[in-house]
Design brief:
single chain, about 150 residues, mainly alpha, about 0% strand, rod-shaped
Amino acid sequence: MIQPLYAMVFGEVALILVLLFRTPLRRPLLVLLDRVKQGRGPVVASTAGATLIAVMVSLLYNISSIKGRSEEGGAINPTDQVILAHQLLQASLIGFALFLGLMIDRIHYYIKEVRMLRKHLEALTKMDRKSDNVKGKKEAEGEEDD
């Protein structure tokens, strides 16, 4: 189970890096994320996230029970140490994966928001230029009449 978790974490890190820097893959990735967030995508993502949270809670409960056994018995046996380390690694990788998934969602939202604000700002500057041109023409016509 650790190899798929590592693959998921490194894949999410790669997605974040592609989203943060202007690369040729950024635009197709944004389109893909837009499509994933439509239809059944959010339901599937929230179900997968809830499943990962449930698995992480289970792992944390197992970790606490192993630590409790070690406190009762005094010394912890080598088998429990290996199991404890393995489950702690799994729980931390799942936590990282959930956090990075949240980061991908927020970065995608902010990129879309910045794009909309830029378009709005460009439209306003074009309107401002047109109104300045109209004012300049009216003033020029007023001076010619004098």
